[in-house]
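Format is chain and fold; as here:
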Amino acid sequence: MTYNFTEEYDIIVIGAGHAGVEASLAASRMGCKVLLATINIEMLAFMPCNPSIGGSAKGIVVREVDALGGEMAKTIDKTYIQMKMLNTGKGPAVRALRAQADKELYSKEMRKTVENQENLTLRQTMIDEILVEDGKVVGVRTATHQEYAAKAVIVTTGTALRGEIIIGDLKYSSGPNHSLASINLADNLKELGLEIGRFKTGTPPRVKASSINYDVTEIQPGDEAPNHFSYTSRDEDYVKDQVPCWLTYTNGTSHEIIQNNLHRAPMFTGVVKGVGPRYCPSIEDKIVRFADKERHQLFLEPEGRNTEEVYVQGLSTSLPEDVQRELVHSIKGLENAEMMRTGYAIEYDMVLPHQLRATLETKKISGLFTAGQTNGTSGYEEAAGQGIIAGINAALKIQGKPELILKRSDGYIGVMIDDLVTKGTIEPTVS
């Protein structure tokens, strides 16, 4: 087949989320000419779900990305509004660093890094097709019918592949945060012979800070003693003026509202077809599965210093908007809360990871790599960990050098990838 290649790259990365950013930075820093293609540049390294980095297990993954030369740790250390070591009352093995992010600032800082990286081109375009000849990647074709040559392609599309947002009985095509979905690429991956699964995740409502009664909630301050994710960050730069989070709970009234509206809940009416995560269930799923619990924790997490939006951690839901509003108002401190964004579920296609080698290259197609939520994981940190490994290995392959495979004994990233490629996954999962 004859192609009309208008540009040539060593590696093309599809998707500029946390996996795509780390993959493109790693490969370009290793001397490869890289194109990072994204549907929407404004959503580069965006946080469509919780505005935080780190936490149990995840914090260690961030440190490992940093040790590999990645960018996530450095960027969160520049843009956090709160830093906190979790589980300090327990043994060292379970302590975990977690940072509350200014998510807009995080995205802007990461974009600055990407735009200033040598060998790396950032472009807003939709990739519709991966071009393959004789079982080997040769390039991509865009929605505007441009063809770019490449020796390797890394797919890091997150939840955009045939994404559908669900709120009550409303269901429509969309990527995360109401962005465009990637439909043609999803079809193309199937045509290339890859086995595709269907997963589901979701987010909670966001409420306006000035409408919250913080007096009846419990303050959750950051740490006074300095701590960092990156080995290069300095104690003297530690932010003292931190923004607190706040703790509240669901109650009997909240649970009754959910029980009375299960017939309108997409999770239980059959509207949601994709498999959801057990580790981070929706509030309606929690009420049904843990019916003996009188209450569930909810953390009120500011999304930044210059916004009124507060993320209600623990209240992920796809209930109809009117039910969400009633539910929010049943919670202590949120009786008069103004809902700025409605919670939603999102269904999306993903590549079943047993089809991958430990380098994250597909077994079926030489030069085709996948990373992040495309592989069935969920979480910014897991995506970054896979992204940097995919980027490094794509570069090594092109350069004819030995591949990098982290063993289970090498780190959490090694455990995560080994689990994915040897065991697969039946739900969105974390390391």
